[in-house]
Each structure stands twice: as C-alpha cells, then as structure tokens.
Amino acid sequence: xxxxxxxxxxxxxxxxxxxxxxxxxxxxxxxxxxxxxxxxxxxxxxxxxxxxxxxxxxxxxxxxxxxxxxxxxxxxxxxxxxxxxxxxxxxxxxxxxxxxxxxxxxxxxxxxxxxxxxxxx
Length: 121
Description:
By secondary structure, the chain is mostly helical. The chain has 3 helices and no strands.
C-alpha cells in the first residue's frame, strides 16, 4: 500500500512539472516577443521585427491551410472516427489562424511605436 502511495505521488509530481513547463514555454515565448517589440528603437530594428512577425503569421496560415486540406481528405476507417479526426484538424487550423492574426496585429503594433535613437535611451 505504501509503495502505491509513493508511485502515485511521483506520477502527480511528474504531471505537475510537465503541465508547468508547457504553460511556461508559451509564457516565455510571449515575454520574448514583448521584449523584442519594446527593445526596437531604430527603424531597421522595427523593420526586422515586423518581417519576423509577418513570416511567423505566414507560416501559421500555411499550416492552417494544410490542416484544412487534410481534414477534407477521405481516409479509410469508420465514419465516426473520421468525423472526430476532421473536427480535431479543423479546430487546430482555427487555432493557428487565430495565432496568425495575432502575429499580424503584433506586426502592425511595431510600426506604431515611437521612434527613438539609441543614444537617448
């Protein structure tokens, strides 16, 4: 009984660590992007960051289109499992589209930042 309790504790700790790392990775990415935007002071830096965000948006949009195409392909198997897989692919595609739009908005916000020189910072 005692070993079962230890195994359960270890599994719960492993699950907690895995969950935290997934959340912190997304948070870490957002913080890095925010630092990029806030750190851009020259026109060249803003242009580079703008292109970076547009490129990410384009990649996410292409992946979304690919998932939608995959959702429409006929596969073998039961109809119910095909429907579940199709809904899952469309849901992932919708999420990627939302992310792509978010990056496009972020790209537009880079241009609206006031321009300063490095010497005045």
